[in-house]
Structure formats: structure tokens, C-alpha cells
Amino acid sequence: MNKDAPRGFLAKDLLLERKATLEAMQRSSASPHEGSPTLTNKSASSPLLRIPGAPSSESSPVLPGGRSPRGNLADEDREMISVLDRFLADKKDETNERLAKEEAAWDEVEERIPDVEAEEQAASGEVEELESTDKGKERATLMPLLNTIVPQMKWKVRIFAVVNRLSGKGKKADVEEVLRREGGFRWKWEIFYIKTGKEDMAAAVKQKVIAERGFDWVFACGGDGTVSSLVSLLSGTGIPIGVIPLGTGNAFAQEMKIPLNWKHAVQMISRNHVRRNLIARPVDVMEVGTRYCMLTIDIGIGAKTVEDAANHAGMKRRLGVWAYLISATKAMAHQARQTYQVNVDGEIQEMVATEVVLCNAGMVGVGHDIRWGPDIKVDDGKIDIVFIEADSVADYVSVIKALGTGSAQNNSRVKYLHAYDFIEISSNEEAPVAADGDVLGTLPLRVKVVKGAVNVLLPKVETPGQVPLPGPVADK
Prior knowledge:
The protein is an alpha+beta fold. The protein is built from 13 helices and 19 strands. The relative contact order is 0.13.
């Protein structure tokens, strides 16, 4: 079972707290308080956030049917959030069942896998014994055979591991101990710890890994933000990245079918390396200025959710994925439709949406196997742009259900475009932009498709475009 899944009583408490808040908001709307604070966008066209009942010189936007986006908000939210919670609970049960099967599969594999290190050490002992004897002829006969059986004895792979102590599981993870146990004498590593967020990880990677070429692999031990930062640094270098998920959402690990149990992720790399079954799989990235993004770029509600979660870091640490769901619910209640000018590979058109998502990967990342689209892949050579039109929480529940069941392409509130070279998006209204969990700024935005820019360590599978790992580097 997934030990990090939210407990039932936590979800119940969150909903009860939401209920009380909504009732207070409804009472406030009946008797407004003079001077209530109002936070508005720099653009005068639509507010980012408004406290119900606060005075305003602007008229609220009217939705189809003459409804106000905040009219009867409490009753609608209470019912729809309840439906959404039940839906996410069902998806969580499915995920937990899958993770339980994964745990059982790993246990079964561990029982059947022979003790490789013991065999190698035994063979190494035989080599040392042969080298200490004067029987040169016997040594000359057996040495080639031993070198064939134990090719890793004279070689080590050099690993630069970045461990983010600020990520969800990073504080307690004893990464060095697991590397020692799984890598044995086949791996030689150096660990760079991120403990305060002020460490200059980029400078260390540029100097030691890229400039000096002192390492063969880089391990990203953290969440999606850690992986994204290393992708930006290593794109185009050919140096493979091993993903060790220690974060909250771990969307990229889910996308690449990497075990969410971080110890199993290390074991996956180690044991496939021993069996020469490890490859460096090339994946695409999205280039935004000097930055490379591997998952999604969000415009609108997604960006506001990221911004709100970043402003409440304590809630994110305590509640995990639920912190994003709470922030998203707040953003849904205050987002109106917006018109975007979109240039896809030179074809210009206007699109109307409440949320826009540029997808390199399909996984939404809330831990419930929800995808932006069934055919979105990290190595398909394109960016999928998702436009969502939702005027109420009920509309968003409908969209989330469609995404969770893989039928979003049949939902009238979801539209798709595909970019194979570049995409440009602008709007007459200000709109926030976030990429891979970090706020980037506001529109306009230009994104370029970069195919096969970075390599990820994965077990060998029969798919085109695989890149064999280079031969081991001599231990100096």
C-alpha cells in the first residue's frame, strides 16, 4: 500500500473545513462588510480573487443562462466537491491497489534474484587468489573466463546524486546507504545535498558533470522540480538522468513507469545495470527561453494553483497532493473565460478557454492515474495543447471525470491542438504562466519542441530510438 496516501479522516476534515468556509462566504455575501479586501489582476478586465460581498465598481461576468460565476457558490461547491472527492477516492483506491501489486512484484523478484554481489565478490576472490599464485599458466587460462563472467569488477560507473532534502520524502531518505547497498563496488558516487534551497546546484553540475566530465550518470533524488532543474542543465549533453522519486506528485516518475517507492527505483537501475539491461531512453522537452520543461506548461487555473501552493509551502508539506486540490478549487471559483491568440507551427487562430495546458507528458500528477490525454507521450516529437472551457465547479468535475476515464477527447469542454515545431500564445488580458511546478511569469509565451533532448535511465524495452549506454568508465 502507498504509505504516503492521505488518510480518510484528513480528507473528511478538509471537506468539513471547506463546508464551514463556504457557509461563512454565503453569509458574507448576504451582508457585505464595507472595506473588504479585493485582489485584482493588473488587467482591469477580470479579477484574480475577490472576497464575496466586497464592494466593486465592476460588474461580475455573466455566464451562459445569466448565472454569476459566484452565484450560489456555496451550494454548488458543496455538492460538486463532494462528487469530486468520491471520484478521486475511487482513483486513489485504484492507485493504491496498483502500488500494492508493485510492492508484491518487487518482493517476488527479490526472492528469485540471486545474490549478484556475493557471486561477484566470490569471483573477485578467485581472481585475487590466482594473482597471488605462481601458476602463470593456470592464471592465463582462467583469467579471460573470469573477465567474461564478472565484467564489472574492474570498472565503476561514476554517479553525481542530487538529493533534495526539501522535497516530500527527502528529509528522511538515507540515499547514501541505499546507493552503497545497491551499487556495491560497481558504483562510485558523490552526493550534493539541497538543504536550504540556497545551494548553487546548477554551478556544481555545470562544473563537475558537464565541464570536467567527472561523472557518467546524474541521479535526481527529489520531486518534479528537482528533475526539471537537472533536465534544463543536462539537455543536449547526452549524460543520462536516473530519477529517484522523493517528491509530492512525482508526475514524471509515473509517466516513465518508475517505481514510486524510491528504494525500488534505485534497485531498478542497479539490477538492470548488472544484467546489462539498462538503456538511456531519449525523451523530448519544451524549450522556453533558456529553460527546458519536461512535463507541462500551465496558463490560467493551473498557474494560479501552483502560485497559491507555493505561497502556502507549509500546507503543501502537511497535506501533499491535497494542497494542490484545495488551491485548484479556489482558482476554479474565480476564473472566467479568456480569449487567446495561438500560433501553432505558423497557423494562427483564436481560442477561448478558462485553462490552457501545454503537455509534453500526459500525467496530471495528482497521484490518481489521471492523464491530460490518452495518446500524449514524452517521446512522440510533439507538444499537445489542451484547451478547457469550464464555467463552474460542476463543469470542472465533468472535465476531471473525462480525463480520469480517458475520454476527454469526446468531451465538448476539452479541445486539442498539436505542435511539432513551436507554439506562441498571447492574450489581451494578463494571464499567469507556470512550468513544471514553478511560476514563470505572464503571457506572451513562445515554446519550442526539442526532440530527444535528454536521456533517462530505464530498463530495456523493445521500442525504436533506444540509446545503448556507453561502455563503463575506468575507475581512476
